[in-house]
User: Fold this.
Amino acid sequence: MENLDEKIKAYALKNAIHYQGKANPGAVISSLFIKGLKKEEVKKVIPKISKIIQEISKLSLEKQKKEFEKIKDLISEREVREGLPELPNAEKGVVMRFRPAPSGPLHVGHIVSNLASSMYVKKYGGKFYVIIDDTSPESTLKDAYKKIKENCNWIFGNVTEYINASDRMDLYYAYAIALIEKSKAYVCTCSAEHFKELATNKKDCPCRKKSVKENILDWERMIDKKGFKQGEAVLRFKSDMKHKNPAMRDFPLVRINEKEHPLQGNKYRVWPLMNLVVSVDDMEFKMTHIIRGKDHRDNAERQKMIFEVFQKKYPWTFFIGRIKFTDLVLSKRKITSLIESGEFSGADDERLPTIESLRKRGYSKKSFEKFIEQRGLTEVDKVISGKDFFDNLKNFDKE
Ligand SMILES: [Zn+2]
Assistant:
């Protein structure tokens, strides 16, 4: 990166001026990422950033402002103003998405990971899809669909379209068959334990050797109610059984699950898994940029492999750091079970960090946007208590 030291100084000064003289190294790193800093370079850059921030913190706020005036041309004009950092290749508009699973109420964690995407679509123009990830019949709750829409209409306010993944089954099946025909997927009838053992030992699964024709026949046996039973067969992506990351070794794409689906009833017994569904949707909707949680790093890697088979360019991706609350329950399943047990009165119980509850307690949409802007795009997790977090939001509202 050209003028690296000067750029660090400019971002550090900008950040310091905004935060009463104290710059945050994480914010500087995320700005540099946007400008093309490579992950390998981070180690080298951190000591530089610390040194520069230390020097800057000795200056008075007035002095910082003067220094910043001198070098602010190094960063783009829009970045000098407040707001989220620029995305690369976004001038002509962006297509982004949020994929909630209908397994429980949406909460503050969903806002933190996804509000930035909605804000970028507002900023650049384009499309913001909410795709309800309902291809796991066992964890799909009928009531969740309507709630998701209500919550998203409130917190984002710019959803282009709501899509139920389970309405797109024909498309996922077509891609599954295309992968078989390209010899990039096969039906595996090994037990889960046996496959795991093979993968751990970097040994090929015997099902890998089947011809395209045999795989098509086995695929039909998966679809056929009289064919394979639940748990007897999965469709796997043919990646590499010696891949350095064990999680990438011939991962599953499709499985059999006979549980009745809240919307589709018993129409399907073969359900695509997340990596196939997400890849197909991202290709079909022509996503340009994806901001997702760091916990999806392996999934993104798997999805990239599927993109490659279809010779599609993978969208620009950023893995946003999570907010780890020291004292809030954020698991959707846990929240659901606590509501069911009567511990909480409902999804809008004032003690819950659900969107419904936050809205009822009077937090404004704007205060969340402010929080996201101020945090910027960062890969760094933040540990905070619920109280401090919400006090912060209240302060934004006062401003
Ligand atoms: Zn097998």
